[in-house]
From TrEMBL:
<keyword id="KW-0131">Cell cycle</keyword>
<keyword id="KW-0206">Cytoskeleton</keyword>
<keyword id="KW-0812">Transmembrane</keyword>
<comment type="function">
    <text>Required for normal cytokinesis during mitosis. Plays a role in the regulation of cell proliferation. May be a component of the chromosomal passenger complex (CPC), a complex that acts as a key regulator of mitosis. The CPC complex has essential functions at the centromere in ensuring correct chromosome alignment and segregation and is required for chromatin-induced microtubule stabilization and spindle assembly. Increases AURKB activity. Inhibits apoptosis induced by TGFB1. Overexpression induces swelling of mitochondria and reduces mitochondrial membrane potential.</text>
</comment>
<feature type="transmembrane region" description="Helical">
    <location>
        <begin position="109"/>
        <end position="130"/>
    </location>
</feature>
<dbReference type="Pfam" id="PF05439">
    <property type="entry name" value="JTB"/>
</dbReference>
<comment type="subunit">
    <text>Interacts with AURKA, AURKB, BIRC5 and INCENP. May be a component of the CPC at least composed of BIRC5/survivin, CDCA8/borealin, INCENP and AURKB/Aurora-B.</text>
</comment>
<keyword id="KW-0498">Mitosis</keyword>
<keyword id="KW-0472">Membrane</keyword>
<keyword id="KW-0732">Signal</keyword>
<comment type="similarity">
    <text>Belongs to the JTB family.</text>
</comment>
<protein>
    <recommendedName>
        <fullName>Protein JTB</fullName>
    </recommendedName>
</protein>
<dbReference type="GO" id="GO:0000281">
    <property type="term" value="P:mitotic cytokinesis"/>
</dbReference>
<keyword id="KW-1133">Transmembrane helix</keyword>
<keyword id="KW-0963">Cytoplasm</keyword>
<dbReference type="GO" id="GO:0005813">
    <property type="term" value="C:centrosome"/>
</dbReference>
<keyword id="KW-0132">Cell division</keyword>
């Protein structure tokens, strides 16, 4: 008689449960340990000044544009997205550069994502069809063997 349980009973053996607990414990330790280490690195004695646009109001002086070769080497904000906008902080009256995301870049990333999802859909649809044919072949073979044994 076949069981309705989808989880094999061998998964409930103490050794298997202990191995699962050990594995997930190590994974959790690794993740939380990395988070703690990154916190310790950021709370060091080194003083980092925050950009003025994070602490006060600002006005966008130049809209989001692609960085050229000179700007990419000179302006740190260009390295994040490849696009930068010049802003003017109102209180301190400082001009700074802020990384931004361009609409053209976002549209390009969107279509790349859509293409990847379409490709994965085709691949998995083919896998489902192949698996279904295999299961149909196995079922018909089983029926044929049962008929032959009569």
């Amino acid at each position: 008689m076949e069981s309705d349980c989808r989880i094999p009973m061998s998964c409930f053996k103490p050794r298997v449960l202990a191995l699962h607990a050990l594995f997930w414990g190590l994974v959790s330790f690794r993740v939380f340990g990395a988070a703690l280490l990154s916190e310790e690195k950021t709370t060091g004695t080194k003083v980092v000044t925050m950009p003025c646009w994070q602490m006060e109001e600002f006005v966008v002086a130049t809209e989001c544009t692609m960085c050229n070769g000179f700007q990419a080497k000179r302006i740190v904000a260009c390295s994040q997205t490849g696009y930068v906008e010049r802003i003017n902080c109102t209180k301190s009256n400082k001009d700074e550069y802020k990384s931004c995301r361009s609409a053209v870049m976002e549209e390009h990333l969107f279509w790349k994502f859509e293409g990847a999802m379409l490709g994965l859909t085709v691949v998995f649809a083919l896998l489902v069809v192949i698996r279904q044919q295999s299961l149909d072949r196995q079922a018909s073979e089983k029926v044929r063997r049962q008929i032959e044994s009569i």
